[in-house]
Amino acid sequence: MPQKSNNILSIIIPVYNEKNFLLRLFEQLKEHFNQNNIEIIFVDDGSNDGSSEILKNLKDKQNYKFAFKLIKLDINSGKGKALQSGIKNSDGDYILLQDADLELDTKDAKEMFEMIISNNDIKCIFGSRYLSGKLKKNNYFFNNLVGKFNSLIFNIFFSQSLSDVHCGLKILHRSVIDKIKLSINDFGIEIDLASQIVRNNFFIYEFGVSYFFRSKAQGKKITWIDGLKSFYYLIKVRFFDNSASTNLSIIYSSIYMAFVGSHFGMGIGNTLFIIFFFIFGSVIGIHFKIISSTIIFLFIFLGSLFGKGNGTTLAVLLFFLLGLLVARNSKKYFSNTKYSLYF
Question: How far apart are CA 260 and CA 280, in angstroms?
Answer without folding.
Answer: 11
